[in-house]
Please model this.
Amino acid sequence: MVVPGARQVARLFGRALTLHCPHCGKGPVRESWFRMRHACGNCGRPLERGEPDYFLGAMLFNLVLSELLFAGIFVAVLVLMWPTVPWDGISVGAPVGMAIVPFLLYPVSKLVWLAFDLSFRPERDA
Ligand SMILES: [Zn+2]
Model:
């Protein structure tokens, strides 16, 4: 088993972040926004590792990324709008955004989780 180098890892993540297959960089990889294909439509390699709780990591990544996005946007709004911060807008917009963003990031998080996993556990040649 050969662990990929930094350049290969960057390529895996780049492909995943643009909703392409981490293996080949093409697709299709989704049947719909909330449904992944079992295998890449181009290369046929699996988009799951065959473990029952495999995508718990993707869910965790999704929540962490959502929280980081919220924190970044919150700090940016504070810095840009200080001292007239729109607290009323933030008190409404922040919870709505926190509820919507995980759904928007759902397919990205699954593919990034696969790229992350492939970075540490590359596929074995059969
Ligand atoms: Zn592929």
